[in-house]
Amino acid sequence: MTASTETGREPGRARVDRWRTKAEVLAEVRRSPGLTRVELARRLGLSSASVTETVARLREGGWLCEHRAPVQGRGRPTTTLEPAPDGPRVVAVDVRHEDWRVGLAGLDGQVSGIVTARHDRDPQRVATALAAAVGDIAAGHRTVAVGLAAPAPISDDGLVRATELAWDAVDLGPVTAALDERCPDPVPLLVGNDATLAGVAEARTGAAAGAGTAVYLTVEVGLGGALLLDGLPHLGAHGQAGEYGHLPFGDPARPCSCGATGCWGPEVDGRALARRLGDPPPGDPRSYALGVLERAAGGDAAAVHAVCGVAAALARGVAGLVAVHDPDVVVLGGLARGLRAAPGFDEAYRRGLMAFRRDDPVPVRDAVHGDDGTLHGAAALALDHATSAEGLAESCEP
Amino acid sequence: MTASTETGREPGRARVDRWRTKAEVLAEVRRSPGLTRVELARRLGLSSASVTETVARLREGGWLCEHRAPVQGRGRPTTTLEPAPDGPRVVAVDVRHEDWRVGLAGLDGQVSGIVTARHDRDPQRVATALAAAVGDIAAGHRTVAVGLAAPAPISDDGLVRATELAWDAVDLGPVTAALDERCPDPVPLLVGNDATLAGVAEARTGAAAGAGTAVYLTVEVGLGGALLLDGLPHLGAHGQAGEYGHLPFGDPARPCSCGATGCWGPEVDGRALARRLGDPPPGDPRSYALGVLERAAGGDAAAVHAVCGVAAALARGVAGLVAVHDPDVVVLGGLARGLRAAPGFDEAYRRGLMAFRRDDPVPVRDAVHGDDGTLHGAAALALDHATSAEGLAESCEP
DNA sequence: GCTATATCCTCGTGGTCCGAGCATAATCAG
DNA sequence: CTGATTATGCTCGGACCACGAGGATATAGC
């Protein structure tokens, strides 16, 4: 991503350390907009003198703004702190199988001005078109970072290996080149996996907001997800963690396209519904599943029965993951939302839990971000970097 | 553990911040004993002036010592840095089902002077006896922390709920009282789960040393384990993460004592071996399993067949966990060590992996700490605290 | 013994966080 | 309206840390 000196760091620790407290303050204000200065000092263990200094610097840089707080009683009135609405921006990108979407987000994480464009899956043309679109948006605002979601595992070198997309390795060089060329200050590009970032969005502003440990699962074709720790995804040694769909919760005799057998994913998606209904394997399992869910909602007995069985298979696995991860909450996205609503889910979930958990079961909730979750997650990824001590040092000091 | 002001922190950030760099230096030296000052400066991005200052302070406090480094060529000879062998100590405690063990560890993490005593499972008498033993050792050395492992989930309030031990909630108050009374400076008591801490030991100085992501699994009666991220265990929302034995990898028809069905644990321990051999459920599944493993090693065909089947059930699940966690390494402890060696493990593991992983499968290794793993982990827990910025501030400033 | 090399130490500077004290802006009481 | 009360913000000097520059130190090579 950013150029790194591989022979080790030269002294420069103080330059970043100076922004550590400011980054903490900014993070706290972003987490709790409308915080008063006194409450901020209390939470972070800062003296009022330090808050004065820190807030002044963040206001200078355009990160925070202050408003008069409604008076509560006696005493000098205080002000509330909020992320500056006209502050720095990040560009969020979501590259999907058949199109890509680009939007702009402020410090509050809301993505606006989303534009969509279809693509033809040619890696080079996609990179070129993205470079133009991202460069246009970035150059038109005070852009401090770009976050990009891709439907593929992300390797360390910042390239995208999208085997399912028949892309070998997408070189994002054109995008970084466009950013370097069209923006006065360097703009880092951060890349993440799409399902992972959808989970991040839920953990920040969605159904798992505030959770220390959250499990996000999404069913489209197969099942993917992420384990979120304090809002950050666990990526694994090679950035390939989260393949929950390949846990062997299923029938050991059934082979999976991944090469193993008994995988959970094919037991909980459109293919599983088709099997239960005696239909041939659907060409597009996702839209097939949507059809069955609709029929079940309409009262079709066979569809209800199939959905119920699949929901139970999903619930049983979710209960197992609760035992392993002990999350504050489990969030379901994609088709899993429809399955959770099906009769049989709750009962199967309860029975799959260890007995001591049944009195107070870990809540299972629907994802609140729809299709925009991934884009929100990409914005969060970029904002995380921009508002870190490193990012602040980068963008506030020449 | 330590008293906390629940109305929020008062300013005191600088007091801890001052030790942040020193804690980093100490951690780096503990990770790489024998480091030169120049190499240290390079890795941490510090100037030589800062290293001089920092090392001097840590030497003053008795945390580090320096030796002359063997001369390499021209230039002024440098010195190597090591954790001081006569530096601060921590006390490590491992409370087990029928006995407890106490030892003393230095900054290198090695536990010495281990003493063992049986107990009668009476919570109050155990706490009293522990208080005396821990107090004796702590008072005889410069003790900066105590780490305690318990065979139970650890709740946030520092009490131990050992339901399997027929203990309701063990109050460790007598231990902290003894420490307060017999040690001049306050000595914090840290508590952790035994399987979790055995995993920590492997991640620090064992088969998973240096791994960013490691999965530790141990089979005794049932199966437990931990996910280790940069050497720190993932604890979950209530400290109950790691119940890998209750993932539904097994026969959905078989009920588990936890209340769910199809759990993995009963498929990979002595009970599973007995089923496969047509024996009745063993009273002590652990020693039964050891007997079967021995018979299999001796060539008993029936035993070999049973062990092989159980090993395959273990391997299949391990492969699933590799898909989910994408670890650098999987470490097996307890009876799982013997199962890994069985014929059939490697083949089942390979077949359970997603195809793209088979060229370079995640290594599965035996735990290198034997029975002492938990005690080492308890020492690591205590040392983590003592060598953190907070711990250093606590013990070095009045 | 002299030089080249690599490292260590000292010193002054700029920066952060802090406590104390003063300044400020509201309510409340008369 | 005025002064007391209360809560908060700001200023100032002190303690401390990381840094760059430059001098000091200890070895190998010649």
UniProtKB/TrEMBL annotation, chains A, B:
UniProt xrefs under Pfam families: MarR_2 (PF12802), ROK (PF00480)
InterPro entries: ATPase_NBD, HTH_MarR-typ, ROK, ROK_cs, WH-like_DNA-bd_sf, WH_DNA-bd_sf
Boundaries of every HTH marR-type domain copy: 21-74
Record-linked PANTHER family: BIFUNCTIONAL UDP-N-ACETYLGLUCOSAMINE 2-EPIMERASE_N-ACETYLMANNOSAMINE KINASE, ROK (REPRESSOR, ORF, KINASE) FAMILY
UniProt family annotation: Belongs to the ROK (NagC/XylR) family.
Protein name: ROK family transcriptional regulator
Organism in which the protein naturally occurs: Actinomycetospora aeridis
Organism classification: Bacteria, Bacillati, Actinomycetota, Actinomycetes, Pseudonocardiales
